[in-house]
Amino acid sequence: SAMYGFGEQAGDHKPLSSAGLAMSWEENGTALTGAYQNFYDNQGRKLNAWIVGTAFQSGGLRMAATASRSDADTGDGTSTVQRVYSLGGTWSATQRTDWTLAYYKVDRQRSQYSSDGYGRLVMFGEYKIAMRTRLYAEFDLTNWNNGYQGVGNQSRARGFALGMQHRF
Q1: Residue 90's Cα: distance from chain center in Å?
Q2: Which of 26, 76, 146, 153: disulfide with 31, CB 3.0–4.6 Å?
């Protein structure tokens, strides 16, 4: 698929315009996807972004991975580049129980700053009580690099959640 969004300023089509391409392919439990898009803000600064991903399903196991990059002109000759990588899998242990383990890595480079980012491990369990109701538990561990989390905050964080979801 392809798209183009016209700018919103009279006499200049570039500010607030966007363009993009996307593709996907799926066969026998394997999927490949990709997309590229660029945007211009109202001052003509550009953001380019792309993502590619793949997934594979065999029986009760689904594996997936993605890689993406965004490159933004932040003005006055400065820019920000961010890369995001993910790898994970979900195992359907029974018809009612799913277990997911995933890892996310974010790397950021900004003009006039040191590179930073974080890595996050997520573990997620889900139990289906009924077709529209699920119980879940989630645990995550995040390691922040080079101050990404902000001055004075710890470089490691843990989270835990329990919940129930009901779809109406």
Answers
A1: 17
A2: 26
